[in-house]
Amino acid sequence: MSSRRREATHAGSWYSSSGTKLASELSLYLSKVAPLPELDYAPPVSNAKAIIAPHAGYSYSGPTAGWAYAAIPTDKIKRVFLLGPSHHAYLSGVALSRFESYETPVGDLPLDLEAIADLRETGVFSEMKSSVDEEEHSLEMHLPYIRHVFNGREDLKLVPILVGHPDRNTLKKLNEVLARYWDDKETFFVISSDFCHWGTRFSCTPYYPNAPHPPNPVPPVPHHTNPASFTPPDLIKRFSSAEANPDVPIWKSIEYMDHEGMELLRRPGEEGAVEKWEAYLDETKNTICGRNPITVLLSLVQHVYKGKERKPEFTFVRYEQSSRCLNGRDSSVSYVSGVLRIPE
Fold this sequence. Notes:
Blueprint: E1 5-6, H1 19-31, E2 48-53, H2 58-69, E3 79-85, E4 94-96, E5 101-102, E6 109-110, H3 113-121, E7 125-127, H4 130-135, H5 137-140, H6 143-149, E8 157-163, H7 168-182, E9 187-192, E10 197-198, H8 250-265, H9 273-284, H10 291-304, E11 313-321, E12 332-341
Parallel strand pairs: 1-5, 2-9, 3-8, 3-9, 4-7
Antiparallel strand pairs: 2-12, 4-8, 5-6, 10-12, 11-12
């Protein structure tokens, strides 16, 4: 194996190492995706420019991710920018891969070395250590899906970007650097993020004892016949059984909190979208692990569409939880799939 190829280090644990079995599983996930007329969602989505999709083991998040990947208009795309959070190494800004290709059981993905070289020259990016690159699952868990939906497309190239904690100045520079790729009709953006990680093992147990039903529920969360039956919610930063409302189980509180975040992301081009997103994260402490890649996307959209009348909108098409938390000893991770559509 070439040292210039990143190994599929999570194959055989987080997903199948058998190419045949993995392709079959991915095809099954995608086959379960159906049009949602109420959301004007009929994949593939011709004006989709970016998706948010989860990065957990496929047995947990694979079905949810399928709803995002089905939306990609693959016939138009030749390059994918993949932005994922750094879980295993502290990173102050953003980093590029040193590899030339990424291995997956369903076929390798070549990196766009020319684009990566251009990005390097901007001075905005640092270099990922190879060990950090191979340890990081936020990027890897998207690779088989990307390779699978672009099956047979040898012209497809990947630009992976690991996102740490870029400050305002770095975000501003990123806007300038990434804007020209955003304007390229053959370039697509994938944002890697799970949503709420709830439980003491995540040091995250916020709770809304009076959580209302989400006003714009994401499927399969049902619409509520009487959403006004709850009082406006007050947030308890640390769950306590003494303050629990028997009518609002923990999983319903998590559901509402995640929907709060999605609601803020629906119109990323609106003025103040970044600030509202960051204020929400600060208030709820919601452990959305891809918060920083999402912030990069929001900032970029703000930059590109500033002063323009028509702006992109996110359509969230799937929401799941790994399990339903009922008491303070339980834990869960939430998975969201969203599709960003640009004005046509």
